[in-house]
Amino acid sequence: MPELLTHRRLDQPRAERRLNVSFDPEMFGRFSERIARFLGTGKFLFWMTVLVISWIAVNLLAVGFAWDPYPFILLNLCFSTQASYAAPLILLAQNRQDDRDRVSLEEDRARAAQTKADTDYLARELAALRLAIGEVATRDYIRGELDRLREEIPGLESPQEKRRARTGRGHTS
Predict the structure, then answer these.
(1) Domain presence at residue 126
(2) Structural domain of residue 92, as residue ranges?
(3) pLDDT tens-digit profile of 96-153?
(4) CB of 71 within 8 A of CB of 63?
């Protein structure tokens, strides 16, 4: 018996034949942010004003082209439709901005905590250095101790007295 074709075999599962459409969930968010940014510009207000004035002028002055007579119900419908889409898009853009701000705030807090920890560490190190320096014998301390020992041991002259004796300045006759 001849071997059946792969697509007709019953002992193997069929390959999935669905149309796989990949959808980027952030794409709509980015698109809505662009629209929300544009709706808040002077350019949008200018062109919207030009459109409304043109709409009203054509419908009042050009009687043959008047598709929306005086109460301008179609214009109001356009405004309502625009508002019903603009408000959710603006809210979506604000929510995305809030999410970005929240992440930025968390990063700032982490950076501030790290800076505080570093500052505390440096303050402890500086205090330890101050304590260590306090225990180090300074030149003045050693000189003072040597002078005190010279005075206690009879017959020892200080280096200044030896110099005076060599130069002859120390003798008063």
Answers:
(1) no
(2) 24-115
(3) 999 999 999 999 999 999 999 999 999 999 999 888 887 777 788 888 888 888 888 8
(4) no
CA nearest neighbour of 5 among 19, 15, 18: 15
CA distance 93 to 48: 21
DSSP secondary structure, 118-140, as one string: HHHHHHHHHHHHHHHHHHSPPHH
**Other Cβ atoms closer than 10 A to 129:** 10
**Taking the CA of residue 24 as centre, how many other CA atoms within 13 Å lie in the half-sphere pointing to its CB?**
6
Whole-number Å distance between alpha carbons of 64 and 144: 114
Count: domains in the chain: 1
Q: Given a cut of 60, is residue 170 above it in pLDDT?
A: no
Residue 32 burial (C-beta neighbours within 10 Å; 0-12, 13-18, 19+): buried
Domain for residue 57, yes or no? yes
What are the distances in angstroms from CA 134 to CA 76, 122, 146? Answer: 84, 18, 20
Residue showing tokens 């179609």 = 74
